[in-house]
Design a protein that fits this description.
alpha/beta, Rossmann fold, Elongation Factor Tu (Ef-tu), domain 3, 2 domains, six-stranded parallel β-sheet, six-stranded antiparallel β-sheet, 10 helices
Length: about 300
């Protein structure tokens, strides 16, 4: 997504002047509830002939609010998923104490003052502004006074009376339950990053891997070996991905290490997206590289047996 505009506290980057329909929220993991808001906004955008845009944060808002939590998706991952859902303009703020001290009306005034916003969509539980003084009712009244269309979406419930919550998804990420995680998401759980040099052990026995490191503010996926699909340069490859440590080689560093089935070539420096389909097994130490190779061969067979992954 190329059309990304910052929203600072002192000034907002001016967009290209096109009319926008704006989704408001954090969209921390772009789950099915968030998709409901995006879909509602897409309908408004079609009716008003405007571009579909969304607001989010670039950086870790939890840390700025003093919360001991990490992001399910990074900014780049959210931007990727939202673009795949039709968002083509992304407005962001860098979370800070001063930003979260902004009043609800001032936040909207600055946002609407910098962009030609003609319609807005948000969830019924959306809050904004200092001390969360802004809510869906506040937003609806503000938009009404400006003649801006406003769609407020009911919360998508996991079970009757209980909305889909990022807190629930966070626990599943920590547990490595990607099948359950994916039931809450419109597209498979994702880890995106730049390929870096690893130990090079896999290449020695015919299983080269692409290694990416997690940023400090991203919530780590539970350790394990997973069936995945890796996208590189727009092409998808079924893959086996080890998330976590490498006990066979006495390596306790935490990495995301994928063997792309059918790939040949140099991946270093490229950005790849790893989509997680299912959990294959726990990580364990093997007595030799040959024993590990035999297990990886079995893992590859398991991946290729999954319908739709190739």
């Amino acid at each position: 997504m190329e059309n990304i505009y910052g929203c600072g506290i002192s000034e907002y980057d001016a967009a290209d002047g096109e009319g926008l329909t704006l989704c408001l929220g954090f969209f921390d993991c772009v789950h099915n509830g968030h998709k409901r808001v995006i879909d509602a906004a897409a309908e408004l955008a079609a009716k008003t002939g405007t571009r579909l845009a969304a607001f989010t944060f670039r950086g870790d808002p939890h840390a700025s609010l003093g919360k001991d939590r990490k992001e399910i998706y990074t900014f780049r991952e959210r931007a990727l998923r939202m673009s795949q859902l039709g968002i083509d303009r992304l407005l962001y703020a860098r979370p800070s104490e001063s930003f979260f001290g902004t009043g609800a009306k001032e936040f909207l005034d600055r946002l609407f003052g910098a962009h030609d916003i003609r319609a807005v969509a948000a969830g019924s539980d959306y809050t904004f502004g200092s001390a969360a003084t802004g809510n869906a009712a506040f937003l609806t009244e503000y938009c009404g006074a400006r003649g801006v269309k406003c769609a407020i979406c009911d919360m998508l419930e996991d079970t009757p009376g209980k909305k889909i919550a990022s807190r629930v998804i966070e626990k599943l990420v920590e547990q490595g339950d990607v099948e359950k995680i994916n039931s809450y998401l419109p597209m498979p759980y994702l880890i995106e990053g730049e390929v870096v040099h690893g130990r090079g052990e896999g290449a020695k026995f015919g299983c080269p891997t692409a290694n990416i490191l997690l940023p400090d503010d991203k919530l780590p996926l539970g350790q394990g070996v997973y069936a995945t699909r890796v996208t590189v340069d727009g092409n998808g490859f079924p893959s086996v991905t080890n998330v976590g440590e490498h006990p066979t080689f006495s390596d306790r560093s935490f990495t995301v290490e994928s063997h792309l089935i059918g790939w040949s070539g140099d991946l270093y420096g490229k950005r790849i997206a790893v989509e997680f389909v299912s959990r294959l097994r726990d990580i364990r130490a093997f007595s030799s590289a040959a024993e590990l190779k035999a297990q990886i061969d079995s893992d590859i067979d398991a991946v290729l047996g999954i319908r739709g992954i190739s």
